[in-house]
Amino acid sequence: MAIGRPLNLTPNIATKNISVIATAGQTLFTVNNGYKINEIGVYRNGTRLVDGRDFTALDGSSVTLLSPATVGDVLEFSVFDAFNIADAINSVGDQVIDGDLTVTGTLTGGTVTGAAIGINSAGTVVGAAKTLNFIGTGNTFAMRGNTVDISIAGGGGGGGLGTAIDYDDGTTSPFSYIDRYVTVEQNIVLDTSNAGVSTSLIVSVIPEVTIASGIAVTVGAGKTLVIDVLEIADL
How many structural domains does the chain have? Predict the structure, then answer.
């Protein structure tokens, strides 16, 4: 056992011990792979030396004895190589984890900031978002296991036609509206790929649909495009 003040290490501290045999009058020793400044213990023939009184270690790579060694002296360097914390997610206070965090079990409680939620439409994944913002009234939400079923009223679906108009107190009035004008700004083909696999009607509740210059709207076989289904132009 070394004589002098011993090293008291916890299991978290990784160390390495390097031993060399001194030559006559040697004062300068190189520590293989270096060390962290103020994180090295130096022993001479089993006796621990005092930093600043018996040696200096200032550059992270070499140790200088203040009294020259004699031939055959054993110099041992105990290097505090790293401080390792295993499985240490702090149980109290804030903590930052640098890098990806993979959870194989269930993450319970709290708020996950910045996380994204997958969005499905009729069972098909359409993307992911951090915020879902539903505008208008008549929208309903229902939890079904880990899935939220969303029903949207208005706009020709979900039990309504048009956008509801509320009273000042937020209750529903008997009125709703649709925009009178709309412009088709991109080419579109209305066929079995997006308008049903069989003969079907393709309707617009907006009475005045303008096709922008250079834009083509193609109605496929078996499809009928109906404009002004509400006959608002006759009011």
Answer: 3
